[in-house]
Write a sequence for this structure.
C-alpha cells in the first residue's frame, strides 16, 4: 500500500480547536489544528480538512474513512438546547422526573437546586397502561385517554414524544403498541419508547435515557446532515463514522438514530489512543490527562484496558449506558483566573473559549487564563505558539494577571509571575485531588501508575500534577494536542446491548437455560446491527457480562464472563466470579447468601484494520544544543534549557528544568525530573531517584 491510498482521517471538535489526524498506508501520521466555530462545529471541519489533505500531499479520493468526535450532544443537554418534549407514563407516575431517586443534589445544603427536568410537569401525561414485574399486561389505555394525550401535545406544539411504562423492559411491545396508537393521531411528531432505546430496569434512569436521546436527536440529525454535506462537497466519498461513549465508533446512520451513544464520545477517544500507545511502553496502569482549552478529562487504565462504567452523569442527570469512565474538571488552557467575593483565587470553570480567547490571543479577551499564566511564567514562547501561526501578546497577558495580583494583594516585584504561579498551583491541586479521589475509590495507589498527558495544555501542566500527586512517571505522546483525533481512527466499531431479567442461580437449570437464551437473543440482535455498519469491518467478536448481586442487595456489580461460561453457563463458576468481584470492592464475600443476575450485557466489536504507529529510526532527530529561557518556578526565575521536539533523537535523555517545544504544545520538565525519547517518539518523564 502506498502513501497515497488507504488514508484515514480522525477529527476531534473541541471547545477551542478542532483537531485533525491523517494516517496513510505508509505509516505516516499528518496533523493539523483549526480554530473551532462554536455556532457550527461542522464549519471548522470543512475549513480544516483541505489544509490537512494538502499538508499530507494526498487527494480527497484517497481518503477511505473519516471518524469524527464531537461534544455537540453533551453541550446541548448541559445548556438545555434540545427539542420541546412530551412524556407519556403509567398512571400515577407523572412525578417521575421531579422525584428521581429522592436524593438531594447536595448532601451539605438544603438550598442547592436540582437540575430542571427535561420535560415540564404539564407535558407529562399518564395513561392506564401498566405491566407487572414479569411483563404481563395489568391494564390498558382507553381510546379516550389517548385522544386526551394527543390533544395536550398538539396544543403545546411539541417536537417529540417519549413513552415510558413501568416494567416495559420485560415487554417492550406494550410501549410500541401505545406509540403506534398515538402516532396515528400525531403523524408529524417523532415518538420513541424507553425499552427500544435502553431496556434496563430502574424506570427513572430508563426514562432519562429515552428522553435525552429524543431531546438531542433533531439537533444531531441536522448537524450530521451538514457535516456529511460539507465533507462530500470536498469530494471526499469515504464513509463517516462517529466516536461513541464506550470508546468505539458508530456509522453516521446509527449516530442519527441513537445520538445518546455519542454524548461522551470525545474524551473516550483519547483514552483509546493512550491504551494503544501504552502497549509499546513498560506501563500497564495509566492515568490519562486530556487537558484542552476548556476542561481537563481524566480516566484510569488498568492492564492497558480502559475502565468502563454504566453509571455516570451528564448535566446533572444520570446516564446508564456503558461509557469509558472519565471525570472532568473545568480547568483548561482557556479557563479564566478570577477572584471570588472572599478574595480567594479561583481557576475555571468559566472559559474564554476560542472567541475572544485568552488575553494573550489579542482577540479582545481581557480576562487572565491559564494560557496567560503559562506565557508569563515562561513555559510557552509567544512566537512559537501553534508553530508560529498565532503570535501571543505577552503584554496583554501581563496586564490581565496584574489585575489578578491586585485583587489578591500581591505587590512588588514579579507581580504578574507570582499571580500566574498561584493559579498554576491551584489548578495542580484541583487535578491531583481528583486523581487521589478516583484511585482511592478503586483501592489503588498513585505510585503504581504513570500519567499520560495530552491535549494542548496537558503536557505543559502534567509534570506539576505528577509531582503533587505522587506519580513517578509521565508519558507525553508524539503529538499530544491531536491525540483524541488519533484515538478516533484507532477505535473499532462497537455497540452495547442489554437485557434485564432476574435469575437466581440457586434455581439451577431453568435459570441457566434462560441466561443462555438471553445471550443468544442479544447476540442475534447485535449481529443484525453490525452487519449494516459498513464493509470496512474485519473480524467480529462478542464480549458478555452480567450484573450480579446477593439476593436482597439494592445494587449490583458487573461481572465479565468468559467464552466457556457464555456458551455453557455454570452456577458454581458464576457464583465464584461474583464472590471475587464483591470481595475486591468490599473486602468480603457473603457465603450465606445466594446470588442472582439482574441484567445481561453484550458488546459487539467489529475490528477496523489496525494502523501501525510510526517509529523513530535510530538516526532520527539530532542532539542539537538547546537554547536557554527563564522560567518562574517556586517564586524565582530559573534558567531552563529549551529543546525543539523535532530535533530530539531516539534514546536521547535530558534533565529538568527543561522546555520541549513543538507545533501543537509545549512540555515542561521540572527540576528533579528527567526525560527520554522512546521508539515511538514518546517523551518518558521520570522522577529522579534519591541519591542517584
Amino acid at each position: 500500500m502506498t502513501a497515497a491510498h488507504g488514508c484515514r482521517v480522525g477529527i476531534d471538535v473541541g471547545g477551542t480547536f478542532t483537531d485533525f489526524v491523517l494516517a496513510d498506508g505508509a505509516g505516516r501520521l499528518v496533523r493539523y489544528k483549526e480554530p473551532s466555530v462554536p455556532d457550527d462545529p461542522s464549519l471548522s471541519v470543512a475549513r480544516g480538512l483541505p489544509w490537512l489533505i494538502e499538508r499530507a500531499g494526498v487527494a480527497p479520493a484517497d481518503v477511505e474513512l473519516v471518524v469524527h468526535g464531537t461534544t455537540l450532544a453533551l453541550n446541548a443537554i448541559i445548556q438545555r438546547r434540545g427539542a420541546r418534549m412530551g412524556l407519556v407514563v403509567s398512571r400515577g407516575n407523572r412525578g417521575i422526573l421531579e422525584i428521581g431517586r429522592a436524593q438531594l443534589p447536595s448532601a451539605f445544603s438544603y438550598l442547592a437546586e436540582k437540575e430542571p427536568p427535561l420535560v415540564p410537569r404539564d407535558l407529562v401525561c399518564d395513561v392506564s397502561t401498566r405491566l407487572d414485574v414479569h411483563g404481563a399486561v395489568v391494564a390498558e389505555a382507553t381510546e379516550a385517554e389517548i385522544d386526551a394525550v394527543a390533544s395536550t401535545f398538539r396544543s403545546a406544539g411539541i417536537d417529540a414524544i417519549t413513552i415510558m411504562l413501568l416494567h416495559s423492559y420485560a415487554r417492550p411491545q406494550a410501549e410500541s403498541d401505545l406509540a403506534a396508537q398515538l402516532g396515528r393521531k400525531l403523524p408529524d411528531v417523532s415518538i420513541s419508547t424507553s425499552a427500544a432505546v435502553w431496556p434496563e430496569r430502574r424506570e427513572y434512569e430508563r426514562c432519562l435515557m429515552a428522553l435525552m436521546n429524543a431531546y438531542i436527536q433533531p439537533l444531531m440529525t441536522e448537524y450530521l446532515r451538514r457535516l456529511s454535506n460539507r465533507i462530500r462537497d470536498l469530494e471526499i466519498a469515504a464513509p463517516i463514522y462517529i466516536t461513541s461513549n464506550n470508546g468505539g465508533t458508530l456509522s453516521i446512520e446509527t449516530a442519527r438514530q441513537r445520538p445518546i451513544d455519542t454524548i461522551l464520545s470525545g474524551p473516550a477517544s483519547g483514552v483509546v489512543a493512550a491504551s494503544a500507545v501504552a502497549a509499546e511502553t513498560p506501563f500497564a496502569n495509566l492515568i490519562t490527562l486530556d487537558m484542552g482549552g476548556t476542561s481537563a478529562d481524566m480516566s484510569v487504565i488498568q492492564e492497558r484496558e480502559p475502565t468502563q462504567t454504566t453509571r455516570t452523569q451528564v448535566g446533572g442527570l444520570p446516564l446508564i449506558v456503558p461509557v469509558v469512565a472519565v471525570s472532568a474538571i473545568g480547568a483548561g488552557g482557556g479557563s479564566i483566573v478570577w477572584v471570588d467575593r472572599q478574595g480567594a483565587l479561583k481557576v475555571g470553570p468559566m472559559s474564554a473559549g476560542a472567541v475572544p480567547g485568552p488575553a494573550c490571543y489579542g482577540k479582545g479577551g481581557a480576562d487572565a487564563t491559564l494560557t496567560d499564566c503559562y506565557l508569563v511564567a515562561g513555559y510557552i514562547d509567544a512566537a512559537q505558539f501553534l508553530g508560529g501561526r498565532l503570535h501571543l501578546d505577552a503584554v496583554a497577558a501581563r496586564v490581565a494577571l496584574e489585575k489578578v495580583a491586585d485583587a489578591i494583594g500581591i505587590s512588588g516585584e514579579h507581580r504578574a509571575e507570582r499571580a500566574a504561579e498561584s493559579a498554576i498551583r491551584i489548578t495542580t491541586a484541583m487535578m491531583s485531588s481528583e486523581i487521589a479521589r478516583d484511585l482511592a475509590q478503586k483501592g489503588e495507589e498513585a505510585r503504581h501508575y504513570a500519567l499520560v498527558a495530552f491535549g494542548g495544555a496537558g503536557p505543559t501542566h502534567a509534570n506539576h500534577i505528577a509531582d503533587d500527586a505522587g506519580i513517578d512517571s509521565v508519558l507525553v505522546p508524539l503529538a499530544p494536542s491531536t491525540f483524541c483525533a488519533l484515538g478516533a481512527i484507532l477505535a473499532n466499531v462497537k455497540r452495547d446491548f442489554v437485557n434485564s431479567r432476574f435469575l437466581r442461580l440457586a434455581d439451577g437449570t431453568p435459570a441457566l437455560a434462560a441466561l443462555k437464551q438471553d445471550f443468544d437473543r442479544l447476540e442475534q440482535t447485535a449481529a443484525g446491527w453490525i452487519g449494516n455498519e459498513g464493509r470496512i469491518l474485519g473480524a467480529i467478536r462478542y464480549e458478555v457480562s452480567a450484573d450480579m448481586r446477593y439476593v436482597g442487595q439494592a445494587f449490583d456489580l458487573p461481572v465479565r464472563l468468559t467464552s466457556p461460561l457464555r456458551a455453557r453457563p455454570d452456577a458454581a463458576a458464576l457464583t465464584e466470579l461474583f464472590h471475587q468481584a464483591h470481595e475486591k470492592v468490599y473486602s468480603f464475600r457473603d457465603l450465606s447468601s445466594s446470588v442472582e443476575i439482574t441484567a445481561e450485557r453484550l458488546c459487539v466489536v467489529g475490528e477496523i484494520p489496525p494502523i501501525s504507529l510510526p517509529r523513530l529510526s535510530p538516526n532520527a532527530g539530532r542532539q542539537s544544543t538547546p537554547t536557554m529561557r527563564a522560567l518562574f518556578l517556586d517564586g524565582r526565575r530559573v534558567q531552563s534549557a529549551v529543546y525543539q521536539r523535532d530535533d530530539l533523537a531516539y534514546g536521547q535523555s535530558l534533565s529538568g528544568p527543561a522546555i520541549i517545544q513543538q507545533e501543537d504544545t509545549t512540555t515542561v520538565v521540572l527540576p528533579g525530573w528527567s526525560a527520554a525519547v522512546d521508539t515511538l517518539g514518546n517523551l518518558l518523564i521520570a522522577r529522579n531517584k534519591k541519591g542517584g
Q: What stands out?
A: Residues 493-606 form a domain with the Dna Ligase; domain 1 fold (CATH 3.30.1490). The chain has a mean pLDDT of 90.
